[in-house]
Structure formats: C-alpha cells, structure tokens
Amino acid sequence: MLSYRHAFHAGNHADMLKHFTLFLVLQYFNKKDKTYWYIDTHGGAGLYDLGSSEAQKVGEYRQGISLIRQAQNLPAELSDFALHIQKILPSSELYCGSPWLAQSMTRATDKLRLFELHPADFIRLQNNMNEVGLGKRGQILREDGYKGLISLLPPPPRRAAVLIDPPYEEKQDYRRVTDTLKTALKRFESGCYLVWYPCLSREESRKLPEELKKLLPDNYLHTELHVHTPKTDGFGMHGSGMFVINPPYLLAEQLAANLPALTRLLAQDEGAHYLLDSKIR
C-alpha cells in the first residue's frame, strides 16, 4: 500500500517529537570531526506546504509547529530547535520533513541516503533536495527503505544515524521494523537507530517498544508524548513514540529537561503526558 501521504500530517505533534529528537542526535554527531552517514528509510517529500489543501484539510500543524512558533521561554534545547526550524525554512507557510532537517545539519563531508517508494513523493523529494543543494553527498532512491537500509550497512565511516519511520498503515510494518533492526544490528551493531511509531490503541503499537528493547536491552532510549486521552472508540493516534538504539549519552538528560515543557505546550486535554525510559552504556 502506498496511500499514506505525510502532507496531511506535516508539522503535527508527532513531527515535533520526532524532529526534536533527531535534532538532538545530529547535534551530538556533529560534535566529533569524524564523518557520518544519515539514512532515512521513509523520506517522504522532504518539504511541505502548510497552506496546501492536504494540510488544511485536517490542520494538524496548528497543534504542532504553530504552537512551537508562538511559544516563549522554552528550555534551551527546545528553543534552539525552534530557531533552527525557523532558519532553515524558506517561508513560515512551509514545514520540513526529516530529510530537509537532516541536510541542514549534516556537514559537507557527511553523506545522506534517502529512500521513498511513493512515486509522487519521490519526485517531490528529488526536487526539494535539489533545490536546497544536496548535491553529490546525497542519494535519493525509489526503493524499499527496509531493504535499502540493510544494503548500505555497514557504512564506510562506520558511523551513522538511521531514521526508520514508516506510516504503519499495515500491521506488517511493525514486524518489518523489528526484523530489519535485527538484521541491521548484526551488520552494524554500533549504529544509532531512531524508530518513530504512533501511539494507538491497537496491540501492535503497544507492544512495539517492548519488542525493540529486546534487541539491545542495555543501550536504548524510549520516549512517548501523549497529547490527549485515548478516545473511547479506540480510533486515532493519541501520541507518538521514539525508540533510539545506541543513543547519545546526553540524550536522556536533554529530553528530561525539555519534555515537560513540550508536553504542556502540545497538550490537547488533561490526559497529556510523557514517558521517558533509558539504559545507556
């Protein structure tokens, strides 16, 4: 299935958690001179028009990036994130996907490998990355991101940040995430793997973090941001999570300092809360 289009959801609360976490991870990677690769298994279009009919249909960005832009007195890292997003976007009517954020933070010596299967989004991703001047340091591939990731491991510099964020339209995505990571860790155990997932009432969503913990039980970070109480009919996403294998050692401390403010900012009812659990070597 290729029906999912992130244009309907760009800039929502899930993007805030995902992109803030990615921002912190790439900041850490940049502290060392050594080259690294950024690999994105589900790149999307790279850049989204918040004035488009898709974004306006549901208006999820109003409860995400719009609140971040209006906020004052944010904690240091969250404030840095908000300023960086503002700096890298050509217009306030736009919001970035993960590839756009990553290309803005990676350095001239770092490499990007971006996968996207949807034909229309693949073309948009190519055009957007060309517009921003990605050049020869990046490759955009219309391939299955799970298989594509494995084919790249281990990357030549033996240093990489990998984002895995499928749409989870189908139940098999949950299994494919864990199976792909099992294989990835065998080929490249030291990689930093970031997995985004939706918080839903369905069993697969609830069980995914525990399945991921089994892969490397002594070096992970798990966080969730719930923006409202689950609906009584069990329908819809009430939050999202990030699971990081081989996280930077400062990540837990940084998230602990910023998640309370982010949760208050994005809360849609009194059921809003966050979770943070980690074991870091």
From TrEMBL:
<protein>
    <recommendedName>
        <fullName>Ribosomal RNA large subunit methyltransferase J</fullName>
        <ecNumber>2.1.1.266</ecNumber>
    </recommendedName>
</protein>
<dbReference type="InterPro" id="IPR029063">
    <property type="entry name" value="SAM-dependent_MTases_sf"/>
</dbReference>
<comment type="function">
    <text>Specifically methylates the adenine in position 2030 of 23S rRNA.</text>
</comment>
<feature type="active site" description="Proton acceptor">
    <location>
        <position position="165"/>
    </location>
</feature>
<keyword id="KW-0694">RNA-binding</keyword>
<keyword id="KW-0949">S-adenosyl-L-methionine</keyword>
<dbReference type="Pfam" id="PF04378">
    <property type="entry name" value="RsmJ"/>
</dbReference>
<keyword id="KW-0489">Methyltransferase</keyword>
<dbReference type="GO" id="GO:0070475">
    <property type="term" value="P:rRNA base methylation"/>
</dbReference>
<comment type="similarity">
    <text>Belongs to the RlmJ family.</text>
</comment>
<dbReference type="GO" id="GO:0003723">
    <property type="term" value="F:RNA binding"/>
</dbReference>
<comment type="subunit">
    <text>Monomer.</text>
</comment>
<dbReference type="GO" id="GO:0005829">
    <property type="term" value="C:cytosol"/>
</dbReference>
<dbReference type="GO" id="GO:0036307">
    <property type="term" value="F:23S rRNA (adenine(2030)-N(6))-methyltransferase activity"/>
</dbReference>
<feature type="binding site">
    <location>
        <position position="19"/>
    </location>
    <ligand>
        <name>S-adenosyl-L-methionine</name>
    </ligand>
</feature>
<feature type="binding site">
    <location>
        <position position="165"/>
    </location>
    <ligand>
        <name>S-adenosyl-L-methionine</name>
    </ligand>
</feature>
<keyword id="KW-0808">Transferase</keyword>
<dbReference type="InterPro" id="IPR007473">
    <property type="entry name" value="RlmJ"/>
</dbReference>
<feature type="site" description="Interaction with substrate rRNA">
    <location>
        <position position="4"/>
    </location>
</feature>
<feature type="binding site">
    <location>
        <position position="42"/>
    </location>
    <ligand>
        <name>S-adenosyl-L-methionine</name>
    </ligand>
</feature>
<feature type="binding site">
    <location>
        <begin position="144"/>
        <end position="145"/>
    </location>
    <ligand>
        <name>S-adenosyl-L-methionine</name>
    </ligand>
</feature>
<feature type="binding site">
    <location>
        <position position="116"/>
    </location>
    <ligand>
        <name>S-adenosyl-L-methionine</name>
    </ligand>
</feature>
<feature type="binding site">
    <location>
        <position position="98"/>
    </location>
    <ligand>
        <name>S-adenosyl-L-methionine</name>
    </ligand>
</feature>
<keyword id="KW-0698">rRNA processing</keyword>
